[in-house]
Design brief:
Layout: E1 8-12, H1 17-28, E2 32-37, H2 40-52, E3 57-61, H3 70-81, E4 86-89, H4 104-132, E5 136-139, H5 153-158
Parallel strand pairs: 1-2, 1-4, 2-3, 4-5
Helix pairs in contact: 1-2, 3-4
């Protein structure tokens, strides 16, 4: 990967899966990292691995499904971490079960994390990107957004 002007990235869902892989690929490319996830122990390990690759990497434990504070928390993280050149919204989760068995609380938690928090993270960094006239926003989606996966109703809707 070649990111000649990107110096810093904020990545959600950075403790595992696509978020972790993205973080380590960006670190290899020399991009400093702000890493967000609710799993602080695994997140700290990813930050340590990124620092071993020679970049600044800060771990920010945050449950993005708690949507009442996401935008303000992301804005505060960006202010502390520094200008965000790349935002990667990779956090996601899902519950299995038929729609008739899915509780409203489970439905809402999936949509809050997979959909609403993405918008709030964008709201948290977009003003400074616009002020600078540059920035990249990557929203990780899923094939589940266009193909039916039985018993993954809320996840499919949110992706």
């Amino acid at each position: 990967m070649d990111y000649p002007t990107a110096k810093q990235a904020l990545i959600t869902g950075a403790s595992s899966g696509i978020g972790k892989a993205t973080a380590l690929a960006f670190a290899k490319a020399g991009i400093n990292l702000g890493l967000v996830s609710r799993g602080s122990e695994k997140l700290a390990a990813v930050a340590a691995a990124a620092r071993e690759l020679g970049v600044k990497a800060e771990a920010y434990p945050l449950d993005l499904a708690k949507i009442d504070r996401v935008q303000s928390d992301i804005s505060a993280i960006a202010a502390q971490f520094g200008e965000v050149d790349i935002l990667v919204n990779s956090a996601g989760m899902g519950y299995t079960g038929s729609l008739t068995e899915t509780s409203l609380a489970d439905w809402q938690r999936v949509l809050d994390l997979n959909l609403t928090s993405v918008w709030q993270c964008i709201q948290g960094v977009l003003p400074s990107m616009r002020d600078r006239g540059s920035g990249i926003i990557i929203n990780v989606s899923s094939i589940a957004g266009s193909q039916v996966f039985p018993n993954w109703g809320a996840y499919c809707v949110s992706k």
